[in-house]
Amino acid sequence: MSAVVRTVAPAASPSAVPPCGSRRAGPVPRWGSLVREAPELGAPARPVSDPAAGGRTLPGGPGSGGRGPRLARRAAGRSGARGSMRPATAADRGHMPGSGSGLALVRDFEGLGGEGVASRSAGRPEARHLVADPPGEGAQVASRGGRPRIGQVAALAGVSATTVSHALNGRRPVSEATRRRVLDAIDQLGYRPNVVARGLRAGRSLTIGLVIPDITDSFYPVLARGLQDVLGPAGYDEIVTNTNGERDLERHALDKMISRQVDGIAFAVFHTHPDDLRPVVDAGIPVVRLGGRRSLPGVDLVHSDDEGSAAEAARYLLRGGFRRIAFVCGPAAEGPAAERVAGYRAALAEAGVAVDRELIAHTEFSRAGGAQGVGRLLELPDPPDAVMCANDMMAIGAVDAARERGLRVPDDLAVMGFDDIEAASLVTPQLTTMANPAREIGRACARLLLERISGAVTGPPTEVIIPARLVRRQSA
């Protein structure tokens, strides 16, 4: 089974629509802009002033005459907490901001407020110390409370913080012996890399948004797993939002993704108007639509061959001698449902069978919806002898409706599903269905998003089509 990849002709002029994956400056600041505005490590910092104090320089800031440490000592004395104070070593400066010369004072307090803040409610908290041994004798770290830092890992492993970073991200070669020492130090300290800081340095948030209509539908967790198969090794996490198939929630989900400054969006819902995706495209965030055939400016598309798969399912039923074939789809024929209805119509026309509009039922994408839709069809004066359903949960509901009326499946009513979720092989009778490769769709989507983010793929939208396959079981 191989996917078909093709370029989609842009639906708008290049001047009106930015290339897929390009980042246009807008009202929402991106991670990269925050990094560019930050002073470089080691550069002289600007004095910190307090508008409430008439613009006077705050104690402890540059230009304050070094009053910061003295005031910190006074504050520590008032709160009853005392720590160690000594000249900073090279190991200390490995995890301290700045690299200027001179005497730097190290003072750590263990309390509720974090580093440098003493707790008034915890009595006399015990101080934390970073003790550096003489050169050549290694380093020992004694830490009680607080999260380990990369400088402590470097000190314990006897390497620089840069070497620790290279050993973790693999961007520069590190000897196996050095890498082993770094990993041992990480295990000993329980160190975890700061993903937010890494994202700031890279100018990215290292997150991908996944917008889905129904998290309880078994298709979508498998889809999410496929994305994670590719995103996880690349250092990305998913943020999943459920919309219940409501357009207002879909638009709100997109706004949230923009606010969270995700690096890309996988959009697996079908009610959204092209204008709803415009803010995402204008923000320069790569977006991949999962399902449907309608081309949107600046939006890539990954989907199964919904039209061809539905036509294949209808032909299978026609070969079995069925002629009153019904189709149970969602509330409105749009997205993949529209493509499947088109394939169903095409196969019937190809066989010379007239399409009866009464045999196309619109209902919810759920087991209850399938039961309701098929229940209405079975009340027709000339009921169907076979039913195609838009997904497997609707097909299970169709079997429920047949049984309630004393019908046998498939003898009295043949039922076909779509997706081949795990439950399709667990129900009785087992569902005949079209296997929709959810996990491979997720993987293809993730690969395309990463290519857009990295700039490996540019230009007009890309469409990736992944074929489905017939799975013959007992229900038809």
Automatic annotation (TrEMBL):
One of its GO terms (molecular function) is DNA-binding transcription factor activity. Pfam families: LacI, Peripla_BP_3. Residues 57-68 have a biased composition (Gly residues). CDD domains: HTH_LacI, PBP1_LacI_sugar_binding-like. The keyword ATP-binding does not apply. The keyword Ribosomal protein does not apply. Residues 148-202 form the HTH lacI-type domain. InterPro entries: HTH_LacI, LacI/GalR-like_sensor, Lambda_DNA-bd_dom_sf, Peripla_BP_I. Keywords: DNA-binding, Repressor, Transcription, Transcription regulation. Residues 1-19, 77-88 have a biased composition (Low complexity). Residues 1-99, 114-147 are annotated as: Disordered. This is HTH lacI-type domain-containing protein. It comes from Phytohabitans suffuscus. The lineage of its organism: Bacteria, Bacillati, Actinomycetota, Actinomycetes, Micromonosporales.
